[in-house]
Amino acid sequence: MKRKGIWKRLFAISLLLAGLSAAGAQAAETRTPIDYVNLYIQGDRNDGWNEDITLQLSTPDEEYRVGDWYLNNSNTASIPIFKVELYARSGYYFSVSSNSDVNLSGVDARCTGRTTRDDRETLVLTLRLDGLEVELDNVGGADLDEDGYGYWDEVPGAHHYEVRLYRNDKSYSQTLSTSDTEYDFSSMIDRPGDYYFRVRAVAANSSDKGEWEDSGSWYFDDPLGDYYYDPYSDASYPGASSYTWVPSGNDWFLRLPNGAYAANSWQFLNGDWFYFDGTGRMVTGWFFDGTNWFYLNPTGTYGAMATGWVLDGGRWYYMNTVSDGTRGAMKTGWISVYGKEYYLNPVSDGTRGAMYVNCVTPDGKLVGPDGARIR
Fold this sequence. Notes:
mainly beta; six-stranded antiparallel beta sheet; four-stranded antiparallel beta sheet; elongated
């Protein structure tokens, strides 16, 4: 019997709660829904990119009124976006279910979002004012000076600028970004050439960009900064001051600008190539890289790769002087040097590469005491 009484009480409570809920719903339904709104927009950007954007909003409807509005993105953005608040009058609430239920007239605009608050008595709209779009002007006054600095005039409304360096009419850097109206290119001017840069303005949304504009050019005879230029390969390398020679007994090691030691690699220093083995030791004398033989001076410019004629052990050898990817490699067979022909032993018999002198070559040609072919 007690259990039956409990169930009766629970049933009564549920009926009471249902009644209260129905009463609440019935009370909410006494307000009239607003499921469609109308806005008339007038606006002006004044001087195009003025910080103060003039905006006037009104509605012909009486069920609600226009409240506050404010800029929701940068005032230098190409297309301004505003937040607009509408306040329902007493007895009404907002029931706008789609952006298309927001009718906008006047300035070309569109609703891109909406939210409600205050028990749906406040409607907050996000409006994109396409009719107030302003295009960025192109950059003017771009120039490059003798110190490698680029300058240009400020573009109203630009959030930042993109720049790119060119050498001899070819792109010489990736696209770089700066918020200033100048850029220091000096560290990139690492070899002689005719340099200029291109620059364009970029809006805050990054999608609106001006046209690329070329600066004036400047011819640099020498690299700027600590670089050494190799005219044979048209390449530049960090200057000698960026490296540190480290002696150890009779051997030499090279500490690189990043603090590591050169190993299993060629290094270009002050116009000469040097090779460092797997232990980091600088190699001298004959060196085979797996494909070609090279001669690294054991005297004079110690360790420097030789090119041209080399005298070793009483025999002459010729090291390639052409920058064809094998510069410094030992030549074999017939070669022509300053209009004369020479024959260099192509056989690996312990004298490979040595010049034939005062004899007949394997293909029946006569060479004199200086090694030159006699016709």
